[in-house]
Amino acid sequence: MIRIAIIGLGLIGTSLGISLRSADSKKDPMGNIEVIGFDRSTDHAKEARVRLAIDKIAANLAEALKGTHLIVLAVPARTIPSVMQEIAPLLEPGAVVTDVTSTKTDVMQWAAQYLPNNTFIGGHPMAGREQSGPKAAAHDLFKDAIYCLCMSANTPPEAVALCEAVVERIGAKSYFIDPVEHDAYVAGISHLPFVMASSIVNATTGASSWREMAALAATGYRDTTRLASGDVTMHCDISLTNAAAITRWIDASIDQLQHLKTALAAGDEAAVTDFFARAQNARNEWLKQKPGMRPGEAEYEDLGVGMVEKPSFFGRRPGKR
Amino acid sequence: MIRIAIIGLGLIGTSLGISLRSADSKKDPMGNIEVIGFDRSTDHAKEARVRLAIDKIAANLAEALKGTHLIVLAVPARTIPSVMQEIAPLLEPGAVVTDVTSTKTDVMQWAAQYLPNNTFIGGHPMAGREQSGPKAAAHDLFKDAIYCLCMSANTPPEAVALCEAVVERIGAKSYFIDPVEHDAYVAGISHLPFVMASSIVNATTGASSWREMAALAATGYRDTTRLASGDVTMHCDISLTNAAAITRWIDASIDQLQHLKTALAAGDEAAVTDFFARAQNARNEWLKQKPGMRPGEAEYEDLGVGMVEKPSFFGRRPGKR
């Protein structure tokens, strides 16, 4: 039986527990599992237990790690270093550690520093909600989601296999990616959106006319700013750990806004039309992609199932297995 | 029987027709109505008829306006001047003209220029979808939506009453507003969001790494950029007719982005936290407001129904009735 510890029982940690435990152990290759949970907040731990995300609550990290094969760090990004230092002496031989945070470069460096003799595989499920905490957890949060995995050239194959099995069990799809590339990409498609959403809210709600404006704001405003309601600590942690990449995307967006301003000032209808037409076309092309398809996977599927053998993995895996 | 002509059978025109015709004529104060539709596109007109948005299709503007009490211009903003010039000689005495476009200052000026005295009331239902065309029309698009109305000091009371009755019949809520204020407000809560959404899409999809990024983009990206899929002509028309107000909100948003960039460059955790905390608080406060409440209306409702008499109108109405 595989024993998994989830450290941190917020939205992601609790959803992960629910997904792992609600999978059919008879059909899943992992078979029977035991999920033990730990959170510094007793309320979070109790809520996770009530929601059946965990088999039991650990009183402390030592209890959580005793006899545990896989440790999932589901804590805010900037608390990862201190948690790694705390767990390092408690890890069983051969135990694998992973995380679920949105940035990977810093996390991989921290792991090399604080868990030098242990196996760390960086993880990032491309799924979330603007609500946070265990109450917002959902059993299908990871369904068909791409789950990024970052490893090094000498990561043991059995550790990779364990993480892949977890990803499969929760209905997500493993995608191997270099941590620097990961951070640059998610800065654009995941971090820039919450930065822009928060900027819209701060710009509009800070205006003296906001009270009158507020009544007129409807579904367009609601959806475009949805991410601004996300967890403040998470947004702050992500922004500070991925500042350079996010700043590049902010600059690219400001360039777009300046370009539109220039076109509006000139009354340049062709340029204004081009601005909105490019965005409409590009977004609609993106929407046509099948959800949860890793780069290269859609092309494989288009060839027809059974016509060619599906690759054993997607993305870039350093070293050999 | 009131005869209403809808000129332009896209998303809004068709939804308006469906809402008007599906209301219970026995219960609605307007009683029986006849809706006649006109669109330069025969396909649009036929689709609107198939969807029961109109009683019949007019072959031309003259036929649409003959014996008609209310003409709704549901055409793109920048085609309004030419349509006004075409319909001016065809209007029956006492006929009222209104529109549904997102900007009101230009439209009110065009009406003053091209239409006979006092027959025009500007309208703007605060509702929409990113899809366009009659196929995207919905019977409940205007349910509980605030419907802005702009009039001049000499607008006849019976013309105002007719527009108010239409708004009530489709389940929306009349809100009287000055056209310049209207344009400044909607530039922030309605136009800025589609500008920002399009900027995100152009910045990200224009990157050389977009192919890899695209696969990782998930619900956050989808929702934040939803408005970028909106109608290009509408976005272009709105931007050009409301350029000054939109530019002010773009500048305010760039200020927010620059502020965050500075905080990130300095590693200023307090400033970064404050940025996201302000946005989260402000958006959550906004979400707490009851939907479709006009400024002042929620306070009235909080006093308890029946305790005080509900005002006969909300917003600012110039002149007297």
Describe this structure in words.
2 copies of one chain form a homodimer. Chain A is of the alpha/beta class and 321 residues long. Chain A has 2 domains: 2-177, Rossmann fold (3-Layer(aba) Sandwich), CATH 3.40.50; 182-265, Orthogonal Bundle (6-phosphogluconate dehydrogenase C-terminal fold), CATH 1.10.3660.10. Chain A has 13 helices and 8 strands. Chain A has helices at 11-22, 42-50, 61-65, 80-87, 105-114, 157-169, 179-205, 210-216, 219-224, 232-241, 243-265, 269-288, 297-302, and strands at residues 2-7, 33-38, 56-57, 70-73, 96-99, 119-125, 146-150, 173-176. An 8-stranded mixed beta sheet of chain A has the order 3-2-1-4-5-6-7-8, sandwiched between helices. The relative contact order of chain A is 0.11. The model of chain A has no long low-confidence stretch (mean pLDDT 93). At the A-B interface, helix 7, helix 8, helix 9, helix 10 and helix 11 of A face helix 7, helix 8, helix 9, helix 10 and helix 11 of B.
